[in-house]
C-alpha cells in the first residue's frame, strides 16, 4: 500500500510539473507571437522607407543627369565662344597692323608733300606738271585718309565684338560654376541618400534575421509542447492507473480490515501530495537563499542581466531568464558551479552547444552557446564543483532554475 501511495504521489507531482511546463511554454509562445507581430510591423515600415529612399535616389539621379546635360551644353557653348573670341582677337590684331601701316603711309605722303613744296623750283610751281603732281598727292592723301577712317571704324567694331564675346564667355563660365556647384550638392545629397538607404536595408536584414530566429524558436517551442503533451498524457494515464490501484487496495483493506497502519500511511501520503501541489507559486521567479558559489568563468563582465529590459534595437520589452557573461579572453574555460549530474549535453539549433547539470536542492544550471563540450561530459556523468565542462568563444549564456522557478544567476555566484 505504501509503495502504491508513493507512486501515486510521484505521478501527480510529475503531472503537475509537466502541466506547468506546458503552461510556461504556451505563455512564451504567445509572447513570441506578439514579438513577431511587432517585428513584422517594423519590417513593413522599413519596406516603405526603403521604397521612399529608392524613389528619392532616382529623383536625385534624374536631376544630376539633367544638370550634366546642361553642363555639357554650356561647355560646348564656352568652347565655341572661345573659338570666336580667338578669331576676333586675330582680326583685331590684323586691323591694328593695317592701321599702323596706313598711318605710316599718311605720314610718308605728308612728309613727301612737304618736302616737295620746299624743293620745288619757283618756275615749276606755276607749270602744268606742278599742278598735276599736287593734285595727285592730294587725291592720294584723301584715299589714304578714307582707308584709315574705314579701318578705324572696323577696329572699333571689332573691339565692341570682342567685348561682347568676352561678356558672353564670362556669363557661360559663371553658369558653369553655378551648375557645377549644384552638381556637387546633388552628388553629396545622393551619397547621403545612398548611405541612408544602405542603413535601411541593413536594418531590414537584421529584422529579417531576428524574425527568422524567432520563428525557429517558435518551431522548437511547438515541438517541445507536442512532446510535453505526449508526456502529460502518459503521466495522466499513469496517475489514473496509480489511483485505480490505490482505490483497489483501499477497497481490499476495507474489506479485510487488517492493515490500519497502511490506511494511516495512505492518508498521510495524500496529505503530502496536497501540500506538495500547493507549494507551487504563480510567480516563475524566486530569490536564491543558499550560499554563494563560484562563477562559471574565471574572468568576465556581465553583458546582459537577468529580468525585464527594453531591447535597444527593437524597443520591445523582453524578460531575460538568463544572463550573458562575456569572457575576458577568447576560448575561455567554463566550469560547473555545483556538484551534480549531467542530464543534457549536445548541440542545439538556437543555443549552439548546451550542457545542463542537475544539482542538489532541485537546482538545474544551464550553460549555453558553448564552442566545445569536454569529451568526458556526457549524459549521466557526475561532475564536481569547478570541473571544466567545456569552452566558450566569448559570450556564455548562463541560466539557473529551481524546480519550476527561475533564479537570477548573479545571486548564485560570487562576483569578483
UniProtKB/TrEMBL annotation:
Q: Name one GO molecular function term.
A: metalloendopeptidase activity
Coiled-coil positions are: 29-105, 148-256
Keyword Signal found: yes
Q: Is Cell inner membrane among this UniProt entry's keywords?
A: no
Any idea where the M23ase beta-sheet core domain is? 327-409
Entry keywords, A to Z: Coiled coil, Signal
- Report TM segments: none
The record's listing under Pfam families reads: Peptidase_M23
Q: Residue span of the signal peptide, if any?
A: none
Protein name (Swiss-Prot/TrEMBL): Peptidoglycan DD-metalloendopeptidase family protein
Q: Which organism is it from?
A: Campylobacter massiliensis
Amino acid at each position: 500500500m505504501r509503495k502504491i501511495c508513493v507512486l501515486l504521489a510521484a505521478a501527480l507531482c510529475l503531472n503537475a510539473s509537466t502541466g506547468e511546463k506546458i503552461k510556461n511554454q504556451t505563455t512564451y509562445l504567445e509572447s513570441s507571437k506578439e514579438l513577431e507581430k511587432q517585428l513584422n510591423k517594423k519590417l513593413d515600415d522599413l519596406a516603405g522607407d526603403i521604397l521612399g529612399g529608392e524613389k528619392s535616389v532616382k529623383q536625385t539621379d534624374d536631376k544630376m543627369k539633367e544638370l550634366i546635360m546642361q553642363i555639357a551644353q554650356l561647355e560646348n557653348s564656352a568652347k565655341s565662344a572661345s573659338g570666336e573670341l580667338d578669331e576676333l582677337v586675330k582680326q583685331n590684331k590684323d586691323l591694328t597692323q593695317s592701321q599702323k601701316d596706313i598711318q605710316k603711309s599718311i605720314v610718308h605722303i605728308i612728309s613727301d608733300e612737304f618736302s616737295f613744296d620746299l624743293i620745288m623750283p619757283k618756275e615749276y610751281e606755276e607749270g602744268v606738271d606742278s599742278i598735276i603732281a599736287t593734285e595727285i598727292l592730294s587725291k592720294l592723301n584723301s584715299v589714304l585718309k578714307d582707308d584709315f577712317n574705314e579701318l578705324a571704324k572696323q577696329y572699333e567694331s571689332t573691339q565692341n565684338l570682342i567685348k561682347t564675346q568676352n561678356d558672353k564667355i564670362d556669363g557661360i563660365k559663371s553658369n558653369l560654376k553655378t551648375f557645377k556647384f549644384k552638381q556637387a550638392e546633388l552628388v553629396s545629397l545622393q551619397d547621403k541618400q545612398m548611405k541612408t538607404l544602405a542603413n535601411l536595408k541593413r536594418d531590414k536584414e537584421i529584422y529579417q534575421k531576428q524574425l527568422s530566429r524567432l520563428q525557429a524558436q517558435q518551431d522548437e517551442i511547438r515541438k517541445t509542447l507536442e512532446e510535453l503533451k505526449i508526456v502529460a498524457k502518459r503521466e495522466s494515464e499513469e496517475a489514473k492507473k496509480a489511483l485505480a490501484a490505490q482505490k483497489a487496495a483501499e477497497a481490499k483493506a476495507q474489506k479485510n480490515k487488517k492493515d490500519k497502519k497502511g490506511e494511516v500511511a495512505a492518508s498521510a501520503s495524500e496529505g503530502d501530495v496536497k501540500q506538495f501541489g500547493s507549494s507551487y507559486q504563480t510567480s516563475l521567479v524566486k530569490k536564491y537563499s543558499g550560499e554563494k558559489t563560484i562563477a562559471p568563468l574565471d574572468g568576465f563582465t556581465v553583458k546582459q542581466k537577468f529580468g525585464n529590459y527594453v531591447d535597444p534595437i527593437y524597443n520591445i520589452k523582453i524578460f531575460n531568464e538568463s544572463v550573458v557573461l562575456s569572457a575576458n579572453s577568447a576560448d575561455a574555460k567554463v566550469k560547473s558551479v555545483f556538484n551534480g549530474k549531467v542530464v543534457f549535453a549536445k548541440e542545439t539549433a538556437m543555443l549552439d552547444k548546451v550542457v545542463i547539470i542537475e544539482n542538489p536542492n532541485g537546482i538545474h544550471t544551464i550553460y549555453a552557446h558553448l564552442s566545445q563540450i569536454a569529451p568526458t561530459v556526457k549524459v549521466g556523468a557526475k561532475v564536481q564543483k569547478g570541473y571544466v565542462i567545456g569552452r566558450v568563444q566569448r559570450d556564455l549564456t548562463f541560466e539557473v532554475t529551481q524546480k519550476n522557478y527561475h533564479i537570477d544567476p548573479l545571486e548564485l555566484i560570487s562576483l569578483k
